[in-house]
Model the fold of this input.
Amino acid sequence: MYREAELYEALEEKSVKCTACPHYCIIREGLSGACGVRKNKGGKLYLLAYGAPATLAVDPLEKKPLFHFLPGQHVLSLGTLGCNFGCDFCQNWDISQAMKLARVEKKKEFKEEEFFQPTWPPEKLAEYAATQRIPAIAFTYNEPTILYEYALDTFKLARKNNIKTIYVSNGFASLEAVEGISKWLDAINVDLKSFNDAFYRKVCKGRLKPVLEAIRLYHEKGVWVEVTTLVIPGQNDSQEELGRIAEFIDSVNPQIPWHVTAFHPDYKMASRTSTPAKTLLKARDIGFAAGLDYVYVGNVLHSEAESTYCPSCKKLLIERRGFFVSLKDFSGTCSCGEKIAGVWS
Ligand code: SF4
Ligand SMILES: [Zn+2]
Done:
């Protein structure tokens, strides 16, 4: 069940240019793009991963993390194989890098099609969420932008069923892809992994500028945006770099929640040390000093720094401890009258 892509241009001699992400791969007939899920067949581009999750689970929304979006509720979450990044610290590398690893191993025998079983078409996802009363569907675990057409069809059906729609993304999306999905997308958590373009190129195999542009555009289009930075000791944890990230978010909107989360050794960074809680608490202070209203630590248990306070009167509004959430009597407005930015119902 391969779906012809919407985001591509036909070129001469049956080549195509994929326009889903800023790699803008030029793909010759019979080959796939850098993400491994979009393939040129006979001069047309197809999404091979359409309907074919490699992982499907029901997660707390706090796990995405989204803290200002239906707190305490759950989300049907899926991801496929493949990704347009190749981060050395990826925590889902077994699925995100599966295509690249298999291509190296199998060489000429490699056929992308063997990796995709279309067991969850959009209709089935929307129907499952509706019958199980799961209030949201998220494309997460690997980069959703490379799955643009699968997400688009799923989100249209989700809307019909009153189900909210979510991306958890590296933000490396073309402006065409952001424009196209925003109308159907309720919320996004974007990783802003660094403020250093050299880091993006070397460690993630991407670039910084398109990520910044995408964050701005998603916000302008009215999608609820939260931002996450995985703080890696010795890589992106300097006061200066964290300050520049916080200032950027503040320049888009100070009400965008910023999650500063702990790195745990994985993939090509398996020999490094985890991020100490004190580094995250320092990052949180940096975020507040830059003017942000909501900064949260993640991947460590620290109830005070995971909870939501009114930026005006400092009252505790949502108490969290890991995935335990207590809303008290909060439903979007503090008793002092301050409206708290987010989607609360
Ligand atoms: S989505 Fe995939 S095929 Fe398209 S430009 Fe990005 S990496 Fe290339
Ligand atoms: Zn208040």
